[in-house]
Each structure stands twice: as C-alpha cells, then as structure tokens.
C-alpha cells in the first residue's frame, strides 16, 4: 500500500537532524533500492528546512509503523512523531 508521509521537525531539532543525517540518508537509500521509499524530500518554509515528506510503499500499516519506529529521525526526536501525518495514496505508475 502506498502512503504519503508528512513529518514536521520539532522546533529545536536542527542539531539532532545534523547529527543523524548520514544514518537517515543511508537507511533511506536502502529503502529506495528495495522500493519501499518511492520519493522523498525536505519541507521548506521561509528558506528553512522544517521537516520531510515521503511517498512510501509497504505491504501493510504494521510494516509502515515498524519502519517509522526505527527511522533515525524518529528515534533521535528530529521528526515530531506524535504529529506525523500518514495518508493512503495511489500514485501514477512511472513510465
């Protein structure tokens, strides 16, 4: 099932984000190669990074939840886990 994930950072998350960014990017690239992450990018407000948005594909909500619980930005309190928005979507196939 495909989902849109919108994850805003905590207001004081910049230092934590930079600390675990390499780990986050490594795990994101692995999931892209497996097809679980379709696309991802930063949320920008007033020229400042304030969070992330991802299109993901997991078999079910349990797999989605397991990914989020182990995502470095969640574990290190970069993304405000309590306010992450998850919306089921159906993306157009790539041509």
From TrEMBL:
<dbReference type="InterPro" id="IPR011008">
    <property type="entry name" value="Dimeric_a/b-barrel"/>
</dbReference>
<dbReference type="InterPro" id="IPR005545">
    <property type="entry name" value="YCII"/>
</dbReference>
<feature type="domain" description="YCII-related">
    <location>
        <begin position="1"/>
        <end position="87"/>
    </location>
</feature>
<dbReference type="InterPro" id="IPR051807">
    <property type="entry name" value="Sec-metab_biosynth-assoc"/>
</dbReference>
<dbReference type="Pfam" id="PF03795">
    <property type="entry name" value="YCII"/>
</dbReference>
<protein>
    <submittedName>
        <fullName>YciI domain-containing protein</fullName>
    </submittedName>
</protein>
<comment type="similarity">
    <text>Belongs to the YciI family.</text>
</comment>
């Amino acid at each position: 099932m495909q989902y849109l994930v919108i994850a805003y950072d905590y207001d004081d998350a910049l230092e934590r984000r930079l600390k675990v960014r390499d780990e986050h990017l490594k795990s994101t690239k692995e999931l892209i190669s497996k097809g679980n992450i379709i696309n991802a990018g930063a949320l920008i407000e007033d020229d400042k990074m304030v969070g992330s948005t991802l299109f993901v594909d997991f078999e079910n909500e349990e797999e989605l939840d397991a990914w989020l619980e182990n995502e470095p930005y969640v574990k290190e309190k970069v993304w405000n886990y309590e306010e992450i928005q998850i919306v089921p979507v159906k993306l157009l196939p790539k041509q």
